[in-house]
Each structure stands twice: as structure tokens, then as C-alpha cells.
Amino acid sequence: MKLKPSPFAPASFPALPAIKGVQAATASRGFYAKRGIERDDVFLFLMPEGTSVAGVFTRSHTASADVEWCREALLQGKGSGRAVVVNAGNSNAFTGVAGVQKNEATLTAMVETLGVPKEQCFLAATGVIGEPLPDPAYVGKMLPQLNAALGTPDWEACARAFSTTDTYPKGAGTETEIDGVPVAITGILKGSGMIMPNMATMLCYVFTDAAIAPDVLDELLREVVDPTLNSVTVDGDTSTSDTCMLFATGSSGAPLIEDGSDPRLDAFREALYDVFRNLAHQLVKDGEGATKFVEICVENAVTAQSAKTIGLSIANSPLVKTAIAAGDANWGRIVMAVGKSLEPIVRDNMRIWFGDLLIAEGGLRAPGYDEAAASAHFAQDHISIRVDVAAGDEAWTVWTCDLTHAYVDINGAYRT
Amino acid sequence: MKLKPSPFAPASFPALPAIKGVQAATASRGFYAKRGIERDDVFLFLMPEGTSVAGVFTRSHTASADVEWCREALLQGKGSGRAVVVNAGNSNAFTGVAGVQKNEATLTAMVETLGVPKEQCFLAATGVIGEPLPDPAYVGKMLPQLNAALGTPDWEACARAFSTTDTYPKGAGTETEIDGVPVAITGILKGSGMIMPNMATMLCYVFTDAAIAPDVLDELLREVVDPTLNSVTVDGDTSTSDTCMLFATGSSGAPLIEDGSDPRLDAFREALYDVFRNLAHQLVKDGEGATKFVEICVENAVTAQSAKTIGLSIANSPLVKTAIAAGDANWGRIVMAVGKSLEPIVRDNMRIWFGDLLIAEGGLRAPGYDEAAASAHFAQDHISIRVDVAAGDEAWTVWTCDLTHAYVDINGAYRT
User: Fold this and answer.
1) Radius of gyration, alpha carbons of chain A
2) What is the CATH number of the domain that holds B321?
3) Cβ <8 Å between B61 and A325
4) Partners of B399 in the beta sheet?
5) Which residues from A are below 8 Å from B318, CB to CB?
6) How far apart are CA B128 and CA B239, in angstroms?
């Protein structure tokens, strides 16, 4: 089906910094072309020797063969990464031995064509789950063509090449410095359904030319992913293929950072967080059928995890999401979603705000409650919900979108 | 909004057995009448002295004032129950002190009008959460009128009087015997959204004229609720008001059962289970926007709880539910939902069936997979999904419905 672009789709893809040392190429193996869609369906990134890599993956117990390989490669390669190949159209999840064969064929082609060690090659795939693979070599055989096309990354083309139901290509980047040396960070990401990351979300690749030791890079990635990609949800369904990888080429000339507490990392850490948050927000804004962007802050929970659990309980509630879609300020459903989380709260001291508007306090509707003002807030396309659960002093913020007719349509027709 | 009846709505309300000792009445306090809907909105049941009662309630941490009172009354009254009053239109949840005042006013009216002890009076309410109450006496003042109208229960009228977005009144009953003496069981229940019971579901009242001691009745209720009402989900949203109560009047003349292992209870136990399962199925069939009834059996899990968790993960997945709505046999989403449950499974030994059709085995699509046959199964209005997770030998069955446009519509317009 032809998807209507998200109302949040930007007028154009952002200008993103080049990352010294990173080359890329895209190509078409015909998956989208056959469907009359003008879009490549596979990309390759190649990084120089000495590039550090960190990755976080779905916690799903039915993880794809690609995710299993990446975990293995990170161990074998001790955090060195040279290349990544990603294809859209088939997730290579629940494909049995054939899925492993496709990976081996792709890896062999990468080693032979690019001259890089196998354990420094990474894979991912996105599309229908359980669909048999046409031919184990169907991605590997693209390698010569991809290799020949390698050059400065066209981030937009790459972001398009791993899209599925995404309605716009998603990228973010920034420039910062380490010890006075300019370094850049650029990332691309795809959504758009089966999104409630439980470690990372769908597919996200971020690159920097900073020089960062693998264990520090891993620490940084886990640190930024938790309050960003791991704090968004579209539909509460965790993918079999969630993959988020961070590559550091070291080509900027900035000094190598080997200690996570090194103060020279402060600005970089903040810049990295900004890029991840930007990507996470784009993910939600292009959630399947999304018409509204919703920020949910839970305050005064007993732990940060408890605040997050409550936030996700609200964010995943179909009743809350359909009320938001309709612009109906049915705040009682937020109360329901807090309650069903089974997290510690003090019901009769709870407070709820929409934006700056106090909606409930002392365990009931606020005395100054104004239905017209509450509805006006819910009529906006950016909605802010704040809930004080009055049980402790920890907070967490999650982001989600609404649940609309378009979600039902898109997901009834995905395989057709 | 005017709701379209569920395609599963029966042509007429079933004929249900009378329960010796039970009287009932319904009345209108004007909630539906004001909206042009011909429906009473409050009911009263009155039982004779010596009636045993058991109840299970929502586990929500934002439970309604009515639920809190019922828990208290069960303790104070030591399992004796004489009367229950339920109203639709306002859930009395998150209503603060006013909610308690409404309960006290209703209980005072019940004590004065019916001449029964306060701790043997039970309450429930259903409707919008957090809506302030018009007047603490708004239910209590109906008691004289209800008392005057008491008579043999009109089960259908009672089932209509506590409906909200239900599109048909739901009841079930059966006759059995204890020690050769005929006894009857009849129950009514309402749905239809905010349904993923975590103890009981929404509002359900079941009556029998058997004579059963309170602790045995409590044991029986917990035993039958778990594989029935606690095994259905419409939208994964647990209500603040879930209440399920079982009254045993003892008026049948059957001997008093004081031990749960008494073999004279065998037929009754089975009959009770049948009534609860019937009601649970009706709940799903009238789930908001439902067009399909889905049974999900999870087999060979490590524990029954694990099987249930996996079953509910499938049943609550918006991607599975929208695929079912569209009749798209996208079985890979079942794999996803099994994986995201994080329960122990052996991915590469998993098997999936639709009805008798083997869809997947050995961790991938079955060799004989037939897309046309799979789609034909998904095109039916009764869908059976069976998943062998190959990790143990415990099983559980859950029931759900599909996620359709109508769910989005109903829940965008509920308060209007």
C-alpha cells in the first residue's frame, strides 16, 4: 500500500556532517523496484582499520540470525568493526538454517570483496518475519557492486535503503570536540512499527570520527541508548531485529579516549546523547499511523526503572493512545494505566499535568480543571503528559505516538 | 456514539435458570435516559440470610473506592453477603473523598431500606474514571424504588443495566446437582474495553442456590476465574474497577459443603467452570470493535504461568491483532510476540498451528506451508492459534479479539 507521509516529515533530509574514515554505498537487489517503489534496498558501510564498535540488540527470545551473528562478532572481534551490510525486505528471523547460510554467504562475500576480517563484519535485515529466503547469496552477491560504488556517505540514500513502513528517511548529526580537536557524529535510523525497544530499536547506525576504545564506546552506547531509543514505543511490540551500533573510526586526529570518566569526553557524551535523542524522536514521529508526538514524564517514582515502567504503561495503553488520536482529554485512562503497571504509587497524592495545566491532584480531578483547556492541549500535535506518582524521588521520560486508523490499515496490509 | 452490535451478538438473551433465594431489581437514575438510550443504569440483588459470598478484584494500584469497600466488607463480613448495588455511568475511581462519601451514602441507604448489615453489602460502579460525582446520594436515593421493585431476577434487564460500551447483554447459566439435589448457577457480566483482567474482569456477578461455606466458595471462585476471566484480553488495559463476585444462597436444599475436596462438589465445580468460561468468551466476543474470536493455546512451556504470559503477549500484540482484523496470516508476528515475552522457549524447536494447519516447525516456516489455507483460516470469525514453545510440558489457553477501526472510533468518542 502507498503510505501517507507522517505529518512530522521534515521538508527535506537534514544536512549531516561527514565522518572522516567512513565510506558507504547503496544498491538495489530489486525488492522495492519489483513493487514499483524507487528505493535501494541494501547498504554497505566501510570503516578504516582500527575502528572501534559497540552494539546493543533486541532482547527478544526469537532474535534474528543477523542479531545472533552481530553478538558473536562483537565478542570475536573484541570491539573492532570494519563493515556493515544491511538489507530491507526480509528480516531473516525464524528462517532456520537458511538464515545462517545467508549470513555466511554475505560474510564470505564481505571478506573476499572488502578484504576485512569476518569477525569485524556486521549484518542486519528488516522486513517480514519467517519469510523463506530466495537464495542464500541474495545479499552477498551485491557486494562487488556495493564495493565499486563506495564513497562519501550519502546519508539520505542510506537511510532510505533500510526503510520499510518508514514514511521519511531519518538521520541526525552534530559536531563537537575532544581535547580541542573537532569530531563529528552522524547517525541514521529506521522505524516504524514493532517498536518498543528492549535494548535498542529496530535498526540504528551511528558513526563518529572520534577515537574511542571499544570498552568506553560500549559504555557510552549503553548510557545514551537507555534514555533515548530504549524510552520510545510505537506499539509495545519488540522487534526480533532491533540493532543499534556505534562506530568510532578515530580518523579525526583527536586523542584516543581509553577511560569513560575522562573529562575530555564530556562535550562528546552530551553531543552523542543529543544525536540519539533526535533519532529517537524521529522514530516516534514516524511511528505507523502517527499524527501526534507524545512526551510522558513520570516523576517521584521509587526508582528510575519504576518511573520508566509507569511511563511505558501509559505510552502503550491502547485506550490512552486512541483518546490522544481523537483529541479527547480522557485523563482517567492515564490513571488506569498508572494503576495497571502495579508499580508503587500513592494514589491519593498523585498529580497529573497536560503541559502546564494541572489536571488532577490529591487523587482526584483538580479543583480548577478546565475541560476546554485540557482538550485544547490534546488537540495539539505535540502533547506533554506529566505524572507525579508521589512515591519517591526518581523520574523518567518516555515518548510515544497516538494509535490511529492508519495503524490498523498499515498493519493489515503490510505483507501485500 | 451509536455502537454497531458485535457480529457475535446472539439473536436473543439466553434463558437462564432462576436461583432460589435471589431477588433483583433495576432502575434508571437517568444516566442513559439523558443520552436517549433506553436502558436502566442501576441494579440491586438481594439474597437471604446465610448467603455465602466470595469476590476477586482488580489488582490495579488505582483501584476504585467501590473495589476498596468490597475488599473491606469481605473481611468484616467473613464471607456473608446479602446485597449488591451496581451503577453504570461513573466508575467512582480517582474521585477522592467524594467517592468514599458516595459509598457511605449508598451503604446507609441499603442498611436502612433492606435491613441488612452494612458489611454484607457490596458495591460496584463502571464508567468514566476521575469524573466528579454529581451528589453523594445519587445511587443511595434509588434504594426505595429498587426495593419496591424486587422480584425474581430479570437477568437480561440486570445485564443491560450495568453495560457501558457492551453491544449486547451477557449472561450464562446451567443446572447441576450436589448430592443428588438440583442446584443452579446463573451469572451476568459486562465488558467491553479496558479489559485485561488481573484477578477478575470488569464486572461479573454469579449466583447459585447451592450451600457452600465461604472459604470453599472463595477457593472455588479463585480456581475457576484463573483459566476463564483471567485468561481473556481485549486491549491489555486493566480496569480500575474489575470485580467478580460469587454468591451462594443455600436455598436449593442441597447439603452444605464445607470442604473444597468434597467429591459431592465435582459436578458443581465443572458446571461453575462452564458458566465462567461461557461468560469469558462472551466478554471477548463483545470486545470493543471485535469482529473475530481468537483462541490461543500455548503448549510445552516451562510453567503454566509462562504459557499464559506467552499467550497474553500474543493476544495483546497490536501487530497480531491488526493482522487478524485484516485476515492476513502474518504468522511471523506470532514469533515476534513469543520472543518479546522474554519467557523461556527453544526457538529452533518451536511449532505453530492455525487450526489443524501446521504453519511453522523447527524454527522456520513448515515445508508444507500453504498461504491460501493459512489465509482461509484467518478469514474465519473463529481463529485458533496453537504454539508449541518446546521448553517444558505446561500449557495455557487465552482468548482475545482483533483490533479494528471500530476500536479506534469507540475509544476516541467514549466520553462524548
Assistant:
1) 22
2) 3.10.20.340
3) no
4) B232, B295
5) 235-237, 318, 403, 407, 411
6) 11
Q: How far apart are CA B141 and CA A66, in angstroms?
A: 66
Is A59 in Cβ contact with B93 (below 8 Å)?
no
Residues A27, A43: Cα–Cα separation, whole Å: 6
Cell of B42: 442501576
Q: Report the sign of the C-alpha dihedral through residues B267, B269, B275, B278, in that order.
A: negative
Is A328 within 8 Å of B415 when comparing Cβ atoms? yes
Percent of chain A with pLDDT strictly greater than 90: 65
Give binding residues of A for substrate as ranges. 164, 190, 201, 288, 411, 416
Interface mutation vs chain B, best among A411, A414, A415, A416, most B CBs within 10 Å: A411
For residue A193, the chain B residues in CB contact (below 8 A) are 319
Q: Is residue B17 part of a domain?
A: no
Inter-residue contact B200 to B64 (CB < 8 Å) = no
Q: How many helices (H) and strands (E) does chain B have?
A: 11, 16
Between A128 and A292, name the one with better pLDDT.
Answer: A292
Report mean pLDDT in 10-residue bins for chain B, 416 residues: 81 94 94 83 96 89 90 95 93 89 97 98 89 89 97 96 88 93 92 58 85 95 90 77 89 95 95 92 87 95 95 92 91 90 92 95 91 93 96 94 86 66
Please give the pLDDT value at position A201.
Answer: 46
d(CA B235, CA B322): 12
CATH number at residue A181: 3.60.70.12
Note whether residue B272 is domain-resident: yes
> B103 and B139: one domain?
yes
Residue B233 structural domain: 23-285
The CA-atom distances, in angstroms, between A240 and each of A134, A159, A286, B320, B355 are 20, 20, 19, 14, 25
How far apart (Å, rounded) are the C-alpha atoms in residues A377 and A356? Answer: 10
Are B242 and B307 found together in one domain?
no
**With contacts defined as CB-CB under 8 Å, which chain B residues touch A94?**
332, 335, 347, 360, 363-365
Confidence at residue A198, expressed as pLDDT on a 0 to 100 scale: 45
CA distance B263 to B254: 14
Residue at grid coordinates 568510532: A248
Locate A64 and state its grid cell.
534474528
Q: Rounded CA gap, A207 and A245, in Å?
A: 8
Contact assignment for B345 to A414 by CB distance below 8 Å: no
Q: How far apart are alpha carbons A23 and A203 in whole angstroms?
A: 19
Burial A65-97 (b: 16+ CB within 10 A, else e): bbbbbbeebbeebebbbbbbbbbbbbbbbbbbe
pLDDT digits (tens, 9 = 90+) for A49-67: 999 999 988 888 888 999 9
Distance from CA of B259 to the nearest CA of A (A): 33
The binding site of B for substrate consists of: 164, 190, 201, 288, 411, 416
Rounded alpha-carbon distances, angstroms, from residue A344 to A20, A301, A306, A392, B77: 48, 7, 8, 9, 29
Residue A37 in 3-state DSSP? Answer: coil
End-to-end CA distance of chain B: 7
Say whether B201 is catalytic: yes
Which of A62, A325, A330 minimises the CB distance to B415?
Answer: A330
Cβ contacts (< 8 Å) between B412 and chain A: which residues?
Answer: 322-323, 325-328
Residue A322 to residue B412, Cβ atoms within 8 A: yes
In a domain, A370, yes or no: yes
Put simply, the answer to whether B411 touches A62 (Cβ < 8 Å) is no
- Asked if this assembly's ipTM is beyond 0.90, the reply is no
Domain end (from A268, A285, A302): A285
SS3 labels along B8-32: CCCCCCCCCCCCCCCEEEEECCCCC
Grid coordinates representing A295 are 512526551
**Who among A59, A62, A345 is closest to B347 (CB)?**
A62
